[in-house]
Amino acid sequence: MELTSRHETVSRTLVLFYGRAQGRDLGKTIGKAEVMTVLDGLLNQWYASSFEDEPDRDAQFRAYLRAHYEKTIAGLSNDITLSEQVRTNIGL
User: Fold this and answer.
1) Which residue range is the domain that position 89 belongs to?
2) How many structural domains compose the chain?
């Protein structure tokens, strides 16, 4: 995704370590709904605010992140083995 000519666009693989602060311990699998909640918070809430002070870029980046989120979750099974990796590359 090209934001402007002054920004370099690169795709980076992110490693996210995840654990529950409350409730049951993680077992061998995690449900798709929980992964969706984590990715939604990360992509559509945390990263999405990167350009709030620049409305044109903000709208473009939020649309990019939403599409990336939808593409990522579409490929997930209902139960994800914790030894598997949910890979997501974000152009930042």
Assistant:
1) 47-92
2) 1
Terminal-to-terminal C-alpha distance of the chain: 8
Residue 24, in any domain of the structure: no
Per-residue model confidence as pLDDT tens digits over 18-77: 778 888 888 888 899 999 999 999 889 888 888 888 888 889 888 988 998 999 899 899
**Sign of the torsion formed by the C-alpha atoms of 84, 36, 78 and 29:** positive
7 in any annotated domain: no
Examine residue 20 and state whether it is found in any structural domain, yes or no.
no
CA distances for 9 relative to 2, 4, 84, 88, 92, angstroms:
6, 9, 27, 15, 6
pTM of the model: 0.71
The amino acid at 38: V
